[in-house]
Amino acid sequence: MALFPKETTLNWVLRFLNKQSAVSRVEIQSYKRNRSIKVLKKEAKFQIIENGFWKEEFIVEKNELKTILKKLIRREFPRSHKLWVFKQVSE
């Protein structure tokens, strides 16, 4: 668990998911922890679960991940300056 500036959160999450070969999970939450974006890496696909202003679920390829996450971070955390990031790796 770590608190990151909003500007660096996307790059950190992408770097973490690229390093992991196993099934892994990252959750991004607002400072107040009332909204979240969960990213689950399952082999070549990524499942993204948005829980906040909108409740949606996406399954995307690696090349679409950055675009979707950037859009969701902007949409879910418009006034946030710091975001909580939780990571979990499963073998």
Could you describe the 3D structure shown?
By secondary structure, the protein is an alpha+beta fold. The chain has helices at 6-19, 62-76, and strands at 2-5, 23-30, 36-42, 45-51, 55-60, 82-90. Strand 3 (36-42) and strand 4 form a beta hairpin. The protein is globular.
Unreliable runs: none
Considering DSSP H and I runs of 4 or more, what fraction of the residues is helical? 25-40%
Q: Mean pLDDT across all residues, rounded?
A: 93
Major sheet characteristics:
6 strands, antiparallel
Dominant shape: globular
CATH domain fold name: Cathepsin B, Chain A
Q: Can you identify the CATH class?
A: Alpha Beta
- The number of distinct structural domains comes to 1
Helix-strand makeup class: alpha+beta
Amount of beta strand:
over 45%
**Rg calculated over all Cα atoms:** 12 Å
CATH architecture assignment name: Alpha-Beta Complex
Cα end-to-end separation: 19 Å
- Element string (H = helix, E = strand): EHEEEEHE
Number of strands: 6
Count of alpha/pi helices: 2
Strand order of the largest sheet: 1-6-2-3-4-5
What's a quick, concise take on this entry?
This protein has two helices and six strands, in the order βαββββαβ. With 91 residues, the chain is of the alpha+beta class.
Topology:
Layout: E1 2-5, H1 6-19, E2 23-30, E3 36-42, E4 45-51, E5 55-60, H2 62-76, E6 82-90
Key words describing this protein structure:
2 helices; 45% strand; 6 strands; alpha+beta; 6-stranded antiparallel sheet; 32% helix; Cathepsin B, Chain A; globular; 91 residues
